[in-house]
Amino acid sequence: MRGLMQSKQLLISSIIEHAAKFHGNTEIVSRTVEGPIHRYGYRELCARSKKLANALERLGCELGDVVGTLAWNGYRHMEIYYGVSGTGTVCHTVNPRLFPEQIVYIINHAEDKYIFLDLTFVALIEGIADQLPRVAGFIIMTDEADMPETTLPNAVCYETLISAESDDYKWPQFDENTASSLCYTSGTTGNPKGVLYSHRSTVLHCYTGGLVDTLGFGARDTVLPVVPMFHANSWGIAYLAPMVGAKLVMPGKDLDGASVYELLHSEGVTFTAGVPTVWLMLLQYMEETGQRLDTLKASVIGGSAAPRSMIETFQNKYGVQVLHAWGMTEMSPLGTIGTLTARQEGWSVEEKIELQSKQGRGIFGVELKIVDDDGADLPWDGKTFGRLLVRGAFVAEGYFKGEGADAFDEDGWFDTGDVSTFDEYGFMQITDRSKDVIKSGGEWISSIDIENVAVGHPGVAEAAVIGIEHPKWDERPLLIIVRAQDTEVSREDLLQFFNGKIAKWCVPDDVVFVEAIPHTATGKIQKVELREQFKGYVLPTVSAAE
Ligand code: AMP
Questions:
Q1: Across residues 54-77, what is the average pLDDT?
Q2: Which of 21, 401, 439, 472 is catalytic?
Q3: N or C, fewer C-beta in 10 Å, the chain?
Q4: What class does CATH assign to 436-545?
């Protein structure tokens, strides 16, 4: 028997309509690329999205067309999110940190009809525009006063484009499974692959993201997503903040410690989210200047493993609760998050930090399992690790244009490429990317475990571990270190530091010091490049073994 409830389609336009009606004066505060701070409320955001929707129709954008953005977190980017997806056009957020060749590849692959870009990226796009034959025009996200001289063909000023339009616009109603936005994975090997979200998947992800034990912020909160809108829709915050009516603070292009701190402090931010490298810069700045964060209640750390020392500093020194989260672009992106249960809240500080160093519990809407190489389920005992598979209503069922099909099986499971354990509480711990685990004498060594311990040493700014070929053990770990400023930590100090913190056979065979560690466009350590850089490196333990 069919239920007798309305089958209203879940559309992104309903989020901004809701925010305009019930949180019309709640602010979106943006640090603009041009410099000044800009403020307005959700009512105006909705009205300007509608002007943009009218402009897009005038430009000939139709259901299923794709338009690209190269933009920081800011109010105009929000208008594009809603104005574009609301009309049924697909909003393709391009990660401007990718190499120019990759940007050319994905803009052409996605068949972007127009490109919206912040002033910061005009020179970048001018340099590649002749390789983008399908793009009909470039809309520069500024006003007439700041409009630059540009060689871009058909360049239009954003404010001029929308000022000619009415804010009277009725959002079209269509099938909730229609594509809404497109985001390419950073692709450490091969070309980036496109993840094509639907209106339904986005709204469902938003509902789950809003649960108190997921991100759980609300209308009393002020939220600053440091995570960019081009990194999996700022982990859903660009949709969730208007849905729940949270004040939104958009940091623009400056993500250094001082700039982020200034906004956290001056806007009374209560909730924030970002990758560990950003928090490293913030914590360093606060350490140097002796600043405190009085309003901040919680900080989400994800994208890479949150080092234990970072969790300790946030919580024990600054009183900010850490929510360690794991996810993927392919998952919209939330998968697990480390909120504690009532019983766990009663544990000792040490025990809690230990648990929070794991990536957290599965959230509703995502099924998770670990399997061995034959696909057999593995136990959740906190020790056994295996390939992590996921499925759910906001997990990709395939990549754009059918690429990477081998990551998806016939039962709908997506192979994340991560290796993890689950403990008896359902807390998952990422051991590694499957291609980064170090295979030593038939055992697996987690590079993340070693890195986490190493960054706890005060002389270490950043650490990376890769496997180096070894005649006896197949592979052994090499620790690559960027020293903290004005410190002289030695190889011996570091090797000593592992005593009692990890199993003896997991202690790296050698340590090298470098000026910088390469990162991907989403802030992850680029292990492929490090492996290339240290190809042929001879470990001191090799001669001993021969
Ligand atoms: P992306 O799609 O760029 O967000 O990258 C997803 C990948 O980042 C995952 O498959 C993991 O390898 C890694 N990742 C995300 N969050 C975490 C975390 N908390 N700890 C360890 N790795 C993470």
A1: 97
A2: 439
A3: N
A4: alpha beta
